[in-house]
Amino acid sequence: MWCRYLSARVLVVVVLMCLMMNELSLAYPFSESSLNASDANINVLFLSFFNGMSPNNKNVNLFYNNQKDGVYLLPGKGFTKLDNLNGRKSAEMWWNGYCCSIYAYDPSTEGGHQKVYWLIKEDGAYHSWDNASWQKRKGWTFNKC
Ligand SMILES: *[C@@H]1O[C@H](CO)[C@@H](O)[C@H](O)[C@H]1NC(C)=O
Ligand SMILES: *[C@@H]1O[C@H](CO)[C@@H](O)[C@H](O)[C@H]1NC(C)=O
Fold it and tell me: Which domain holds residue 24?
């Protein structure tokens, strides 16, 4: 009798646990669908800087948006940055005594694009929205920005 009572309780506990796990697995896709990809992208700016110079070149030292610490980019190396979309973001690059200073992001000229790519070459900085078609935006100036 006592044994039967126990196994009935164990069964109830097992059934309850199954029900709870079911609810958890039902709840998970539900919360995911309420945070969809376009919501997540709404306020995020993605910036990519890639040093496309030939391998024998010196580092490019990139200062993002007036930050004091630069990022060293060897030829063939890239740097990506997430930021907000509020206002212009500058980037100052130094290479071999030359400077190239750009607006890495300028909301008035990006046409609503939230991904902006920069390719840094021996003749200057190239801009793209798709990391494939490039337009030259700025050359290097010796010893000043
Ligand atoms: C995702 O979010 C966008 C913007 O808020 C909305 O228009 C769209 O209906 C949502 N899609 C789904 C599947 O919830
Ligand atoms: C841009 O394209 C280059 C060359 O295809 C690739 O190496 C790089 O990872 C791409 N950058 C991003 C941020 O996708």
Answer: 2-35
Supply the CATH number for residue 82's domain. Answer: 2.60.40
Q: Are residues 128 and 70 in the same domain?
A: yes
Q: What pTM was computed for the model?
A: 0.70
Task: Tell me the per-residue pLDDT of 43-60, one tens digit each, with 9 for 90 and over.
Answer: 899 999 999 999 999 999
Cα(14) to ligand 2 centroid in Å equals 51
Query: Do residue 75 and residue 6 come from a single domain?
Result: no
80 C-beta closer than 6 A to ligand 2 = yes
Residues 110-119: tens digit of each pLDDT: 999 999 999 9
- The number of domains in the chain is 2
CA distance 22 to 111: 46
Cβ atoms within 10 Å, residue 142: 8
